Amino acid sequence: MLYSLMLFCLEDLRGIEFSVPSVLRACGRSSAFREGNQIFGHVLKIHLWLDPFVANSLVRMWLELGETELARSVFDRMPVRDLISWNSLITGYLRAGEIEFARELFERMPERDLVSCNAMIDGYAKQGMYKLAEDIFTTMKVKDLVTWTTMISAHVLNQCPKKALYLFREMLSEGIRPDAPAIISVLSAIADLGFVEEGKWIHTYISANKIERCSRFIGSALINMYSKCGQIEHAYHVFSSISHQRNIGDWNSMISGFAIHGLGHEAIKLFLDMERAALEPDDITFLGLLSACNHGGLMNEGLSYFETMQAKYKIIPKIQHYGCIVDLLGRSGHLEESLEIIYDMPMEPDVLIWKAILSASIKHNNFKIGQIAALRAMDLAPEDSSCYVLLSNLYAKLGWWDDVARVRTVMKKRGVRKIPGCSSIFVGGKVHQFLIGKAIDVENNQNILSMIEEVISKLKLEGYEPDFNQVLLDLGDNEKECHLALHSEKMALAFGLLTTSHGIPIHIVKNLRICCDCHSFMRLVSKIYNRRIIVRDQNRFHRFENGYCSCKDHW
Asked: CA quadruple 455, 460, 466, 467: dihedral positive or negative?
């Protein structure tokens, strides 16, 4: 840096417009504000900023130094601006989060190119403004791999996995070969959807085109995809084939996969293998491990590893780690101990922690703690409908219908709407979705309702009794039974029984936690119909087989 500046000071003015940009670039990369400002003054003095090449270099230097206002001042003075000028400043604004300034410039551009369009799509997506990103995408006449990958990633970030998958297929039909980032994004979309058929095809594509050699993250993405699609055996097969690479991300993905499947002992064994392999665990490792202990009902082991991460590995717990411990103690009925953990935390508890306490209070009939947790949760997230629903559940379980009505009135006044339960099933190459009592995209709804009636009749002969505690409305028993029969996961299950061959597992994905009645229902169906049923709810997997569930009623 100093050597470049010396050369700059010693040489005469001939050809200076060619040497200044390299010096400015060195100042930007070295975070040398003082030197850069001195050169800036010299450039202004001799009017060298009139040279477009020098002016563009000044803009880039100020942006690298984090001085967007100075960069803009240079840009505004430029007598001639080329695409590099516009794109440099737009990209600089986006790197700073200053999305509105970037948008204003983008709208003023006399000519847009791939660089500016791709930058704006990415910027909008990261700000959650994916509709604006989509508007740019649809108007682009020329799209490259970066364009497609950025738009696919935008849909994944904004919880639109079906659109992301659709775009990926469209990209392939255009003859554009995906790279590692595109593959990782589409694997994430498939993981969100929870249906493995597309994922297996992508895996084959990866192997055939040797894309896995291009990125160390593809292995982790495959493990995550198979885990979230209910194929934990496939996930472990992928892990076994790449674990020699010593990439901690692969190990973390596998531990997390075991966690959502409730396989706590398997997660612990993998962690011990990791220690024996002299791989240093990080905070993500312990988050997966604590989650596995939580879902597996391993309270003592979870508490022990919470101590290990701090004492042995000197890892300071984050709020997510505390959340796992609070949930673990609460699920096990140790609500007072959960509160002690919360009050001793070095940070303020978030809404997820209070909701964990509230759920545990409902499970263990602790009204006093449940009400405290509900009020704290609603203070932190007044727009979160699940806080109100959980409090309503608590009151309904106690039969306090006036209080249930009061909660609903508060929700209405605050404009809070309950998220409807939605279940999905993948049949015939298509995702079919169901709401309570309604099939979204299936023509003959009556066949499904008739199938539910038939299933309930058979289950009742085996001792099934609807759990009216799961109905949070003040209704008569007949009305409650009808309400329970139409839960979305029952609708999806009936559709699966009607449309899939015997022996083929039925995979269902639900956006909310499965209720106790549907859980008992699935267990009995797996026995009476001799079908394997796999349900992924908001928190974890349930594998029903021969009348048993893998969660062992701990969820």
From this structure: negative
- Amino acid 302: pLDDT: 96
In this prediction, residue 6 carries a pLDDT of 38
Annotate 313-362 with three-state secondary structure: CCCCCCHHHHHHHHHHHHHCCCHHHHHHHHHHCCCCCCHHHHHHHHHHHH
Tell me: do 390 and 437 sit in the same domain.
no
Listed in sequence order, the residues at least 6 apart from 74 whose beta carbon sits closer than 8 Å to its beta carbon are 49, 55, 58, 59, 62
What pLDDT score was predicted for residue 408?
87
The Cα 456–Cα 482 span in angstroms is 11
Q: Are residues 411 and 475 in the same domain?
A: no
Which range of residues forms the domain containing residue 408?
341-419
Same domain, yes or no, for 375 and 458? no
Domain count, the chain: 2
Q: What are the CB-based long-range contacts (under 8 Å, 24+) for 107-116?
A: 111/83, 113/83, 113/87, 114/140, 114/142, 114/143, 114/144, 114/146, 114/147, 115/83, 115/87, 115/91, 116/83, 116/86, 116/87, 116/90
Q: Which of 402, 419, 436 is the last residue in one of the domains?
A: 419
State the Cα–Cα distance between residues 335 and 330, nearest whole angstrom.
5
Q: Report the SS3 class of residue 227.
A: helix
Q: Are 502 and 514 in contact (CB under 8 A)?
A: no
For 426, counting Cβ atoms within 10 Å of its Cβ (0-12 exposed, 13-18 middle, 19+ buried), the class is buried
User: Contact 254/291 with Cβ under 8 angstroms?
Assistant: no
Nearest-angstrom CA–CA distance, 182 and 221: 11
Bridge partner residues of 432 (DSSP): 425
Helix (H, G, I), strand (E, B) or coil at 398: helix
- The pLDDT assigned to 48 comes to 62
Q: For residue 334, give the nearest of 354, 360, 358 by alpha carbon.
A: 360
HEC profile for 231-276? Answer: CHHHHHHHHHHHHHHCCHHHHHHHHHHHHHCCCHHHHHHHHHHHHH
Model-level pTM? 0.83
Q: What three-state secondary structure class fits 461?
A: helix
Residues of the chain with pLDDT under 70: 1-20, 22, 30-32, 36, 42, 45-50, 212-214, 442-444, 469-475
How many other C-beta atoms can be found within 10 angstroms of the C-beta atom of residue 385? 15
The domain boundary residue, chosen from 372, 387, 419: 419
What value does the mean pLDDT of the chain take?
Answer: 86
Residue 192 three-state SS:
helix
